[in-house]
Structure formats: structure tokens, C-alpha cells
Amino acid sequence: MGARLINNPRQTNRGHVDAFPALHMRSIRKTIFYEGHRTEGFFRHPSISKAIPIIVDLRVDEHDYRVIVRHGDSATNIQVIRLTHRPTGFNGRRWYFVSEKGERAETLFLVDGRFRTRREAGLTYRSQSMGELDRVLQRREKLEAQLKGTRARGPARGRRRKQAEERLEEIERFLTGFESGLLLRYQKKLEHARERRRRSLERLEAARAAMTQRKDVKPDWVIKTFGSLVDGLKAGTISPDPSRIPPRSASSDPDPQINMGILQRLGFLQPGKMLGDQLGWPEAWVPEPDRRLFFIIDLRDRRRPCAVLLVCDPGRQAHQLFALKRIKGRFGRQEYQFICPHTGRQSTAISYSEGQFFCST
Q: Could you write out the three-class secondary structure of 179-219?
């Protein structure tokens, strides 16, 4: 199986094969395996407090060869595992365990109190979960052990030692380059995060400055003046104005916006409160000298949040009601979106053009 390029652990059902006690056919063949006989023995493992009795029955017909495992003290808690074999050279035989699905295996693993094949238990080899870096580190450990020596074998000498030193030097050069690459990637990531933060602050400051250029009333006056209008719109006693306010002159920027994320960062989205203010946009966005724009965000009722946008001219006033939908944002945050009253389309921003607000695409 090819090496994986990432170091995140492989998703398995149980874990790795080396984490569970294993019953090997080879060990049984050396101890309690005698053809034509019924032989008893025990399976022992450091992780098991009590030995497990095992019976190998090869007395009957070869199609009924089996291993009987007694789990626990109960006489009924017995597992029967069939055996099979295939011919090998020099009139020999190679023996296998047979799973309940008919799969042959030379090793069984004790999982949930039963001996199972690797596939039955959903186990994988640890090497299957190793990424490229893990494999390099493992090769370095083996080469260092080869140079220093182990209990079973002394340090390498002569040509073998020279080859191991050359390979170890190549690995060290690879790891040095890998660390440099990680450091460079981390620095780029920090630089990108700082740039994103800078642009976000610039957008926030630009939005705050645009809202206050021609502002002439305070937020408390907006809530006091138009609070009853919001209540009437939600109660149905006042209907939204379907008429379109004719523009008096063309705007040089046809698409100024109210962004929900900006409003939230400015503190206008607070659960249980109704907050609002004047949109003191510059003359380029609202060229009419006597026109005033206002907004109110009502989050008093969690089930019916809404936003009301007002366009006020001398002697005339128009209002639009936008329902809000609460959604789950990034990092567990709660965010809101506008719902277009005509199309039902959801949007994080609404645009203003020619005396009307509409959901942006």
C-alpha cells in the first residue's frame, strides 16, 4: 500500500492489530496441534488476567477439523472455529482458521471476547496510518539503532556502517528542509491572517465612517420615533408600503449596502433588544439633500426577528419590513440573514438604490 501524504490518523472501527491479543496458527502448530488427536492447551497474553482454554480437535473427518475456545467460566460460552488447509511442497500442509464468513486467516485477534479475523474486527496495520514524515522518522530510528547496536545485535561495521551513515545523513537533510518548509508555511499563514484582519478592520472603519457622514439624529430618537411602527408591522395592524419612492436624481454609486456582519460588529444585533440608527451615508450614495434613511433591528422576540428600513422625505415616509433568519455561523457563532419579502431569498446584505432596499445577490 502506498504512503499517505498526510499525518492525520486513519479512521478505523477498532484500532491497530498490535493493540489486541493475537492467536497465531504457527504457535498452535508448535504446541497443541497433532493430526488425528484431540489436544488441549491454553492461550496466554500479558493483557489477559486468566488463561483461555483451547482445544484442537483433529480426530474426525478433515472437513470438520476445528478449534474450540472456552471463554470465561461458563460451559455455554464456547466459540468454535473451523480449520482448513491447502497442500504445500514436499507433501506438506498449510493450515488456516476459517471465519464465519468463510475467510481464511493465519492470525485471529481477541476483540470483544471473541477471536476474529482482522477484517471481521475492523483492524488495520499501524503502517497503513503512517504519513510520509512518520515513515522517515521510523527509518531514522532504525538506522540509529543499527549504528548504536541492540541487545540482539552489535553496532554495524565496515560497509554496512558506511551505508547506514550515508542514509542517515540524507534523512537529516530531508528533515532540515522539511522543518524550513513548515516554518515558511507558518509564517505565510500568520501574514495572511494579519492581512485579513487589517482588511476587515478597514471595512469596519469605512462602514462606520460612511454611516456617520451626514448623521443628524441619535439612536435613541430613532427607536422612540419609529418603535411603534415596528410593533404595528409585526402585529399586522400596519402593512408594509408597497409603493416605490421615485428618485429625485441618479446616484453615482447605485449599490450601497447594509451588511449584517458589519451591523453585528457595530453592536446592533443584541438578543432581546431593539436597536437602530440613522444611515448617514454620503451624498454620492444618497444625492437627495433632504432624504433621511433609518434602520431598526428588532431581536426582542427570538421567534420573529426582523429589520425595518425607512426612507423619509419631507412630507413622505416609506418603510420596508425584512424578516431575519438565524443561522449557525463559523466557530459556533449565531448569525442572521435578511429574507427578501418578495422572493424569499436569503442574503447577508441588502442594497439601496433609487429609494428602495432589496436583497443583494
A: HHHHHHHHHHHHHHHHHHHHHHHHHHHHHHHHHECCCCCCH
Q: ∠ CA(18), CA(22), CA(25), 5° rounding?
A: 135
Q: Which residue in 64, 76, 70, 65 sits closest to 25, CA to CA?
A: 65
Instruction: Assign 109 a pLDDT band (cuts: 50, 70, 90).
Output: very high
Place of cell 514436499: 90
Alpha carbon distance 9, 13 (integer Å): 12
Q: Report d(CA 233, CA 226) in Å as an integer.
A: 11
Under 8 Å between Cβ of 320 and 229: no
Do 286 and 211 contact (CB within 8 A), yes or no? no
What sign results for the dihedral spanned by CA atoms 206, 307, 223, 290?
positive
- Nearest-CA neighbor of 208 among 269, 258, 275? 258
pTM, entire model: 0.50
The region that residue 122 occupies, defined by phi over 0 for left and psi between -120 and 50 for alpha, beta otherwise, is: left
Triad 14, 19, 40: Cα angle to 5°: 105
Q: Quickly state the pLDDT bin for 198 (edges 50, 70, 90).
A: very high
Q: How far is CA 59 from CA 36, 38, 51, in A?
A: 4, 6, 24
Name residue 133's amino acid: L
Q: What is the dihedral of CA 201, 199, 205, 261, to 10 degrees?
A: -70
